[in-house]
Prior knowledge:
Blueprint lengths: L10 E6 L3 H12 L4 E7 L2 H11 L3 E4 L8 H11 L5 E5 L8 H4 L4 E4 L4 H12 L6
Parallel strand pairs: 1-2, 1-3, 3-4, 4-5
Amino acid sequence: MSGETSTRDPVRVLLADDASEMRALLRWALLRDEGVTVVGEASDGTEAVALVAQHLPDVVVLDLQMPGLPPGELLVAMAQAAPGTPIVTFSGFEPELVAPVQARLVTLHIPKTTDLALVRESIVGVARGADGT
């Protein structure tokens, strides 16, 4: 499903962050773009894996520090639940701190200190097949 979204189709995003305030902020930033829809929100790793399998979004925005699964296991489970779906980590936790084979499952890492307009642009870019930068 990844990389196949045309510029006319809405970008389907799954948000996964244990902080409800952060999910609300991301949702607000993403929905400012009429071409984006949020298909689900998860507050822990187990819920995120279930929702990605259920919704098969165009892109997952994932906080690596959530309850439910350790970061490396969470990345592997997400990739197995929806093969080919890009994973954008939006986290204060660097993906390089997980095993290298697991870090390769991350399409793009965005630090939580990044400007929200750039966050939205990067997520949409990844969903549409760009490198997100």
